[in-house]
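Sample entry (102 residues):
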Amino acid sequence: MNRFNDLRQKMNSEYRETIQRRYYTVTGENPNEKILDNLIATGESETFLQKAIQEQGRGQVMDTIMEIQEMHDAVKEMEKNMRELHQVFMDMAVLVQGRGSN
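Predicted structure, serialized as tokens:
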């Protein structure tokens, strides 16, 4: 019976630590004992964390979209520069070819 109680206490402790880590990950703050007790007692920890992650996820998605757009714009600019450089080489080839026939 003692082993069962020890195991139960260990599981409760680990669950509490898990909720504490998740809360910190989502909010950036360590929860106080009252908040932890409330989240565990009401069973709202998963709902709270899912909502917070979804809200935070939207911001991350928007940041990622902006980052992708910036990379896309940079690639388009590089492509334009490559075309201009290609044209310079083509013009130089015509000039060199023209001097060679003179």
